[in-house]
Amino acid sequence: MESILADVAIVGAGGAGLRAAIALAQADPALRIALVSKVYPMRSHTCAAEGGAAGVIKPDDSLEQHFDDTVGGGDWLSDQDAVDYFIREAPKELLQLEHWGCPWSRAADGSVAVRPFGGMKKQRTWFAADKSGFHILHTLFQTSLQFPSIERFDEYYATELLVADGRCAGLVAIEMRSGQMRRFDARAVIIAGGGAGRMFPFTTNGAIKTGDGMALAYRAGVALKDMEFVQYHPTGLPSTGTLLTEACRGEGGVLLNRNGRRFLQDYGMGPETPLGRPVLKTMELGPRDRVSQAFWHEQKKGNAVSTRWGDAMLLDMRHLGEKTINERLPLVRDMSISYMGVDPVTDPVPVRPVVHYMMGGIDTDISAATSLPGLYAAGECACVSINGANRLGSNSLTELLVFGRRAALSALEYMGNNKPAPAPASLAEDARGRIRELMQRTGGTETVAGLRKEMLRTMEEHAGIYRSGDGLGAACAKLGELRRRYRRLELHDKTNVYNTDLLQALELGSMLDCAEAVVQSAAARKESRGAHQRLDFPQRDDRSFLRHSLASYDAGGAPRIGYRDVVITRSQPGVRDYSGAHA
Amino acid sequence: MTQLEVLRYNPETDQEPRFQRYEVPFRDDWVVLDALNHVKEALDPTLSYRWSCHMAVCGSCGMMVNGEPKLACKAFLRDYPGVIRVEPLRHFPIERDLVTVIDDFVAKLARVKPWLMPKEPAPAAGEYQQTPAQLKRYKQFSMCINCMLCYAACPEYGLIPEYLGPAAIALGHRWNRDSRDGGREARQQELAAKEGVWDCTFVGACSEVCPEHVDPAAAIQQVKIESTVDWYQAHLMPWLKK
Q1: Residue ranges of chain B whose pLDDT lies below 50
Q2: CB B128 to CB A99 under 8 A?
Q3: What pLDDT, in 10s, does the model give residues A297-314?
Q4: How many CB pairs under 8 A join A and B?
Q5: Domain A2-108+118-229+359-425 fold
Q6: Residue A547, beta-bridge partner list
Q7: What gap in Å lies between CA B33 and CA B148, rounded to an integer?
Q8: Which of A419, A428, A542, B34 could form a disulfide with A546 if both were Cys (CB 3.0 to 4.6 A apart)?
Q9: Looking at the 3D structure of chain B, how many domains does it have?
Q10: What is residue B131's predicted lDDT score, i.e. its pLDDT?
Q11: How much is the pTM?
């Protein structure tokens, strides 16, 4: 098998992977950096992030307030030492992007502009109109092109990590163009593979977000942390799940039920604020978990609006006027017209909660290191955790910069202290054998589309905004069954060149492993916290569950669930208050 | 129901490309990508194509729809009465089915040096100042999603594969127009070369097909004008040169 020698191999070339690659290239131009991604960097899902990136920059703001918002927003499940590191690094990283030429939107005086965002007490979200993630991704990608030491392997799908003597020593990947397997011998590996929202049928996530990076680490023995915390973004288009950014509400958009009532005031986020004058951390600027949960209750009460795509609420932006909408929310207007036939300038847009982000992921510490020496992770695939039980909007774009860089620095330090120890060739040969077996298997009874459909239905039914012990029990049984049946999958396409039947089969395998970790962790967490709401355990239970869940892989059965205490430095668990009355 | 006629080509098994017909449900809210996904899921798992975001920002799903370069996620079935013919993007080698080889563009993008070459060192604390008007000077050219529709639409690129092409020129120009940047001279060797802007005959098809309303044709004309001024200054008025 052809082997590629690298110092560091990075899996995933979105925001976190590119940021890590640039940090490595700048630190030591002699390093060989292999950037391995199943898509071209500019296709990575970072491009779809709209609203912006949080970082304290304005004189009326403070690091302490960003800390408080993030920890409270996460329902006290965030590690506070990690949050401290994150908020301190955040402005430096956003300025670094500015110095690389990111087209941040500007105030009249030429300084960067900031906008309000949900759960944030100050305006601290840097933005580039409503294409912030797109501009961050392309700025990083184009900046990375000046470093000859970053060698890209575009459209290579990583199938396994190489682990020898308890250390990560590289990975094996399929070159999509040829169907050939390649071995990457690397002294350290950084996983930046993104989230796994495609486990659910209704999601803002692009087709590529199938949890591959999480599954790589999980199968290599690294735990997946806090997987039960799945974020629903309140405002997706009912037709396609396409995201309408929280900035719609940051700019002053409001949410209405079928009676035209701004119903968030009935769910502890009132009192009602004046139209067009949004109040921070109040009403429509509440956190995503609370807003999505409020919609669920409205739906139960029969207050939802009916559309041909199911129940919805209305996002009313008419009072912002055409000029503001065009300047600040051009993509939102374009997509509302294209995919819903509704112009937000003249009509309220139907929206409903949609799966958006995994708070959980690969268990890493504050230095982006995993429990496997030589393996690091950053971005949505990782769980540090700064996001706790509910991420605040605009913290994730910053997170992938801060921890993408941190993973690179940690990998550098590791390489300084450890001699290279390549994995025996037999490991890669075994990995190739497993792909070959899947390719050549005959007499299989299962298909990718069939298994995927059952997984999607199970997650939608039992792992949504509100969950119950019975439902989660059924989901655990079903996911176990699907993982067993997956071994009897047969491909229709057994050819080599750009075989998307094979690609989708591998992606499905990743999603099934992640989905099982989600439902098993959710079944074990008998409390309600942040985005994890149990109808049978409606209260937060700090005595038993102020802890991270850790799901450990078991090839033959369900994961083992363990726990680790949350790191608390100075903010004791309290009440999450999103009513402006107590501001 | 709607008929799709999709170009198929697998280099391992096919001598040459062929068309395959699929019958898919007609839904007025479906785009061509939804129809292809229906084919992949329910009719034929061997069909290969690229896609991801379904919101016209990742740039993966560029293809020819009834002979025009389109993003499959923004081409609505309702706009195409009759059989819909779907082919890989014109002017690019076919890797398989609707998947093209885009190495040429990726290499050309790097050649225009699409990164900031600072005019002045970055401020020690804080950001470069850039007014909304200065931002506006380059903003539209930074909106390129690298979807390759403009290359598929450009007759010059079809004739002269060495031509740098609309997106790469627009992106090089984007940095030239950024108030923070001082790298124009370094980019000129690519942009102002024969295979740079001078291969363009100003057909303007690139700007017409751009799904992001970037105007690469304008970028190309601006580079031509600037390059002409450069030439006069260098050859006729050398005392003006720094």
Answers
A1: none
A2: yes
A3: 999 999 999 999 999 999
A4: 147
A5: FAD/NAD(P)-binding domain (3.50.50)
A6: A565
A7: 17
A8: A542
A9: 2
A10: 98
A11: 0.98
Among the three residues B100, B116, B141, which one is the final residue of a domain in this structure? Answer: B100
Flag residues of chain A having pLDDT under 70. 581-583
For chain A, the 3-state helix, strand and coil shares in percent, each to the nearest 5, are 40, 20, 40
Active-site hit among A249, A262, A356, A525: A249
Known catalytic residue: A582? no
Q: Give yes or no: A318 in active site.
A: no
What is the structure's pLDDT at B240? 67
Distance between CA atoms of residues A287 and A283, nearest Å? 9
DSSP string, A167-199: EEEEEEEEETTTTEEEEEEEEEEEE-----GGG
- Give the closest-approach CA distance of B76 to chain A in angstroms: 9
Query: What dihedral do alpha carbons A412, A395, B53, A41 form, nearest 10°?
Result: -20
Most B CBs within 10 A among A94, A97, A132, A145, hence the mutation to make, goes to: A145
My answer on whether B93 and B130 are in the same domain is no
Report pLDDT for A583. Answer: 45
DSSP-assigned letters across all residues of A295-311: HHHHHHTT-SEEETTEE
Which residues in chain A have their CB less than 8 angstroms from residue B29's CB? 239, 339
Task: Identify the residue whose tokens are 């502890």.
Answer: A268
Select from B54, B109, B130 the Cβ nearest to the Cβ of A106.
Answer: B130
From A66, A233, A328, A405, active-site residue: A233
The confidence score (pLDDT) of residue B235 equals 85
> Which of B110, B172, B163, B98 shows the shortest CA–CA distance to B138?
B172
Classify domain A234-353 by CATH architecture.
Alpha-Beta Complex (3.90)
| Contact A477/B at CB under 8 A | no
A180-191/A2-11 β-pairing: parallel
Q: Which residues of B touch A493 (CB under 8 A)?
A: 45-46
Whole-angstrom Cα distance, residue A426 to residue A1? 10
Domain with B163, as residue range(s), is 103-240
Scanning A187-329, the segments in alpha helix (DSSP H) are 212-219, 247-250, 288-300, 321-328
Quickly name the fold that domain A427-544 has: Methane Monooxygenase Hydroxylase; Chain G, domain 1 (1.20.58)
What is the amino acid identity at position A427?
Answer: L
Q: Among B87, B6, B72, which Cα is nearest to B211's?
A: B72
A259-300 tens-digit pLDDT: 999 999 999 999 999 998 999 999 999 999 999 999 999 999
